[in-house]
Amino acid sequence: MEIQKLIAELNYKAVRSSGAGGQNVNKVSSKVVLSFDLKNSQGLTEVEKILLEKNLSSRLTSDAILILNCDEDRSQLRNKDIVTKRFLDVVKKGLIVQKARKETRVPKSAIRKRIKNKKNTSQLKQNRRRPELD
Hints:
With 134 residues, this protein is an alpha+beta fold. The chain has a domain of 92 residues: Double Stranded RNA Binding Domain, CATH 3.30.160.20. It is built from five helices and three strands, in the order H-E-H-E-H-E-H-H.
């Protein structure tokens, strides 16, 4: 993964923020929308693209485009920095390969302990019964 190439491939678009905020919201485009085309990226290898497509499948559009937006700050420049950092975090987390789970056996001591407890419980319940008088 080449970070500088990835950052160069990002497309930014400034739009008006939604919600309350008075007159400033109506005239200033401070919200930043970042889009990244995963399939046509030159900063990622084919293996990384496949891994990201699998791990980020819920966040990608049907054309394999990742869209992130940020309207946390009133400054467009700060929002651009925040969304770029968020993008790099998403990509780094998407490239992490989880270890395969190794199955383990139940220890014999645990099996013995379970059976012993069952026998004790059974004995306890038998002792509660009314004695049979012949």
